[in-house]
Amino acid sequence: MRFVRALAALSLVVVCWVAFEFAQPPETMVRGARVFADVRAGIEESRPWDVRFGPGGHVQVQPRPAIYPRPRPVVTTAPPAATTTAPAGQPPATTTTVGTTSTTAVPPVTTQTTAAPPPASTTTTAPAGAIVVNPGSNLASLVGSNPAGTAFLIKAGTHVGQSVAPKDGNQFIGEPGAILDGNKAQFAFAGVAANVVIQGLIIEDYTNSPQLGAIHGSGSGWLVLDNEIRYNGTAGVVVPPGSLVSGNNIHHNGQIGLKAGGANVVIDGNEIAFNNYQDAFDMNWEAGGTKFVDTANLIVRNNYVHDNHGAGLWTDYNNHSTVYEDNVTINNYGPGIFHEISGAAVIRNNRVEGNGHRWYLGGILVANSTGVEVANNALTGNNGGVMALNQVRDSWVTKNLWVHDNSASYTTGQTGIFAEANEDVIYGAWGNYFDANAYVAVSGSTPFRWAGDITWDAWRAAGMDASGSFS
Hints:
Blueprint: H1 4-22, E1 28-31, E2 34-37, E3 49-53, E4 59-63, E5 131-133, H2 139-144, E6 151-154, E7 157-160, E8 171-174, E9 178-181, E10 189-191, E11 197-199, E12 202-204, E13 213-217, E14 223-225, E15 228-230, E16 235-239, E17 244-246, E18 249-251, E19 256-263, E20 266-268, E21 271-273, E22 288-296, E23 299-301, E24 304-306, E25 313-316, E26 322-325, E27 328-330, E28 337-340, E29 345-348, E30 351-353, E31 364-367, E32 372-375, E33 378-380, E34 386-390, E35 402-404, E36 407-409, E37 415-419, H3 423-426, E38 433-435, E39 438-439, E40 448-450, E41 453-454, H4 456-461, E42 469-470
């Protein structure tokens, strides 16, 4: 029960933030047969969460700066200000407020094959009364013999073959240098418990079935904080509804770095890199940086996602009210950000560089999803700019897509919509619209796609980017 107040506070903050994000009074904009609601005009940037232990061992959730420095989006070519008046019947231009970006430079795209660096060290303090777990102790036995809500302090050193089914409210706090070496065991932590905390550990060499993680929560409200999760056979982390994953370095896992499902999950301030590094899994199916399935109110922010053999950030199937903001995605085989067969999303203020050259197209790709806004992103050197797909995918269609105030520079690929179905309405009545985007150093004779491969002049003639620029 010690986590009830903390998790209630976390849930309240997340729900209120998302409600504010998606429930602003909409500006109704009609273009043809479409009604487009701007779901995120003028929102103030929220700050990441800090989770620390207070008096009596209770978790405290409070705003804080990033746990450790991470590159943040740096827009080198500012998108045009959206202050123009749109032609009659088109969405009016708006001024989009986004958070202030850091001046920390993002490293250049490389083909590095060495291990990604671990997070900067943090000081971890276990709650009073935590049970000390020394190397050689049986952590599963200690959990089994103590009540729910017990905290465990895992001492520095290597703990081999530990596999734990937590109880509700368990806390597993690692001293600096505490390593859980699975020695090919299935899970480090797995089960249906609620309100579990896993913090400050190195978790490696767990081998599981595809799609299952070294950390695999199936309950609710897991807090996965400040860990290094590396060299596991399939997924690094899988978290349930109501979870927070923050400050982790998730790298060199055999299939995928991170997965999540359910409502009110926050993914904040992690480095996710080099996953599926041996190409053991088909990235068309599920491999690379992340995959989110069947979520509501998902927030993915402040993450540095790079060099994954697959998509960087990927929402795939039935994700609604998604926010991607202030992420840096570099050199992933697939799109930097990929929103597929899902509902409303805001994709804003991200830096997307060098993605999509080995699988699929676009730095940012929207596929068969309705009500997506893509705004104020800086895209450089990807296989195209912002692309959308519309294929035969049951009832999922690409509709009411609004792409505005982005900057894009690319020498391969295109910007626009590629349709294999519904071509009679996707380029008109369904209200897909691009405006006020800046295209810089774009190569190719037909760098746009709109009912065919077309030039900038033809793109403008189709009504796209009336307030945009091309140089």
